[in-house]
Each structure stands twice: as structure tokens, then as C-alpha cells.
Amino acid sequence: MKETKDTDALIAIFNGCRKGNDTDAMKNIYTNVIVPGLTGKHTLPLEMMYYSSSWDWLMTVVETIENLNPSGDRWVVEIEGISCHIYSSDVSIDFERCTSTKLNSTYKTIAIENVACGVSFKFLIPKEFGGGFIKDKYQNYGRLGEKEDGQPKYDMYEILAFWNKAEGLKYDGEFPLMKEIDKYTDHNRGLGIDIGCYDSQVLKLKYPLKLVSASFNGTYEDLEDCSLGDPDQGCGKRKRKL
């Protein structure tokens, strides 16, 4: 049951919900919740959100997916028999699951846990470094954004090194909030890898990286969890083990 609720929490965030703070009164409370059959957005505890057991709840997520727009194309959700298929021809990637029931197949197909190449996502930025986010399609190798000449603009490991003030950083001028790729990037990227290669290291950082779904409406500070290692290195979708 705990794994199911953990996945429900991730699906809630993907669906645009915002988690409350860590105080006892607000723990596991979410705002901006789409409730089937009701208009507007609502505030509910996680225990009253039924993505894993209710078609009505799960269909709100399907609608969110179908409204995503990667580079002009749209994601398609096909549910037939006891299988569910989610794909977008534009990014040449798809997710499919077939289990014992239609509901379970759809739930598990939606519960993808990584950001794969070509998939739209948001890179959240802490307030201390300007706040907001960068929306992009995952480029692999930790590249992010695009310069005017079409080349990647940032390196995530280099940014990680600057956010956490790794020793030995190289740069010109004043300390950058969001340093762009330049002649020092390979060196600084190595420092970022040194402090954030393993999950055990990432969890100790003051400012770990946070990559979220393109539909996420919160801030860096809103999100308690951070992005951990992907065994597939973003080369393909990785289904959450339930």
C-alpha cells in the first residue's frame, strides 16, 4: 500500500497538484487538485486521492497527458482490452503496459519514473539562483536549453557544482547564478559529478537537481523530493516498480 500511495503522490504532482509543507497540519495535504465531477481546484489529503483505484480519478491524468504538447504533436492515450498504450510519434517514444485489468494497466503505464530523451520536462531553479524553471526536451548527457546558434546552453552537472559551491570552480567575472556552457564547463562538470554522481551524495546536497513533468506548476521549494540517478541514463522510459 505504501508503494501505491508513493506513486499516487508522484502522479498527483504530475497532474498539477501542489504539496503542502512538512508541518504536521499540512503533511500529505495537496492543493490545486482536480476532483472528478467537481469544478475548480480543491485541497485534499493524499488518502482521499484515488488514482490507483478509480477510473474517474485516473481519467483526469489521461486528460493532462493528452493536453501535453511536445514540439507541436500531442501524446495519445489508447486503452483497449486490458492494455494501455501512451505514445507521441513526434518524439518517437512510447509507454505500454498490459496487466490483469484495464485500470491497473493504465495506472502502471502512467507511473513512469524517469525523464527519457526527447520527453518534455521542467528544470526547477531555486529562488537563490533566480527561481522559476527552464522547460526543455531531455537532450541526454545533462545538457539543457539552447543557445542562439542551436547548441546546448547549460550543463546540469556544472550547474549542480555552482549551486552547491563545489571547491575548484572556474569562471570569468562574478559568480554566476546560472552559468552557461563555455571553456570551463568540462572542468566544472567534473566537479558536479564528484559531488552528485550517487544518490547517497545527492541526498546530502543543499541544492540537488529537480527535474519534473512539464505539467508541474510548483516551485523548486514546493517540491520536497529531488531527482536521483537513472540506471538507463535517460536512454529510454523506465517503468516504476509497483
Care to give the gist of this entry?
The chain is of the alpha+beta class and 242 residues long.
How would you describe what is shown here?
The protein is of the alpha+beta class and 242 residues long. It has two domains: 109 residues, Bacillus phage protein (2-Layer Sandwich); 94 residues, no CATH class. Helix content is 24%, strand content 19%. The chain contains six helices and eleven strands. The protein has a three-stranded antiparallel β-sheet with strand order 1-2-3, with no helix packed on it. The longest helix has 13 residues. It starts with a helix and ends in a 29-residue tail after the last strand. The C terminus is likely disordered.
How many domains in all? 2
Largest sheet: 3 strands, antiparallel
So, CATH architecture of the largest domain? 2-Layer Sandwich
Proportion of helical residues: 10-25%
In the predicted model, the low-confidence regions spanning at least 5 consecutive residues are 230-242
Order of helices and strands: HEEEHEEEHEEEEHHHE
Class of the largest domain, according to the CATH hierarchy?
Alpha Beta
Secondary-structure class: alpha+beta
Number of helical regions: 6
Overall average pLDDT: 76
- Radius of gyration over C-alpha positions, nearest whole angstrom: 19 Å
Basic shape = elongated
- Distance linking N and C termini: 10 Å
**CATH fold naming of the largest domain:** Bacillus phage protein
Strand content: 15-25%
Number of strands: 11
Record the strand order, biggest sheet: 1-2-3
Structural features:
alpha+beta; Bacillus phage protein; three-stranded antiparallel sheet; 11 strands
